Amino acid sequence: MKKLQIVLFAALILSFASCKKESKGSKEIYGTWKLTETWMDPGDGSGVYRKVKEDKYATFNRDGTIKGDAVTDLLSFKILDSVTMEVKSGNQTSPFIYRYKVTSTKLELNPPCIEGCGLRFVRK
């Protein structure tokens, strides 16, 4: 029984040691992001992310405002949970619900598109 406990303990230690460590950067959306790719699907599932040729940026401020030339129609945002945010646009009276995914170095935004669309950013 003692040997089994030692083997299980050793296996547990090895499994923790082999886990990939996450980068120590912030996983918050706040900050300036450079737009790198956009995606628009025509409705048949053939859409792919395409690299952006021009340097465009979006800044998500802690006061909830959005600035920059990558998302010029967006004015403000409010984080709802770990995967959705409410976004207000200058073009609409009602807010939209965006899906998002953020790591320490990457941000992906998915607006509410009928066929599917998205924006990918890297932290500046």
Give your account of this protein's structure.
This is Lipocalin-like domain-containing protein. This protein is mainly beta. The chain has one domain (23-123): Lipocalin, CATH 2.40.128. The protein contains one helix and nine strands. The protein has one helix spanning 2-18, and strands spanning 31-40, 49-51, 57-60, 66-67, 74-79, 84-89, 96-102, 106-110, 117-123. Strands 1, 2, 3, 4, 5, 6, 7, 8 and 9 form a nine-stranded antiparallel sheet that branches. The radius of gyration is 20 Å and the shape is globular. Mean pLDDT is 85; it is low at 4-23.
List the helices and strands and how they pair.
Layout: H1 2-18, E1 31-40, E2 49-51, E3 57-60, E4 66-67, E5 74-79, E6 84-89, E7 96-102, E8 106-110, E9 117-123
Antiparallel strand pairs: 1-2, 1-3, 1-9, 3-4, 5-6, 6-7, 7-8, 8-9
Protein name: Lipocalin-like domain-containing protein
Q: Distance N terminus to C terminus?
A: 54 Å
Q: Which fold name corresponds to the CATH topology? A: Lipocalin
The fraction of residues in strands falls at: 35-45%
The H/E string reads HEEEEEEEEE
Residue stretches low in confidence (pLDDT < 50, at least 5 long) are 4-23
Which CATH class is shown? Mainly Beta
Categorize the overall geometry: globular
The whole-angstrom Rg is 20 Å
Overall CATH architecture:
Beta Barrel
The percent range for helix content is 10-25%
Biggest β-sheet description: 9 strands, antiparallel
Care to count the β-strands? 9
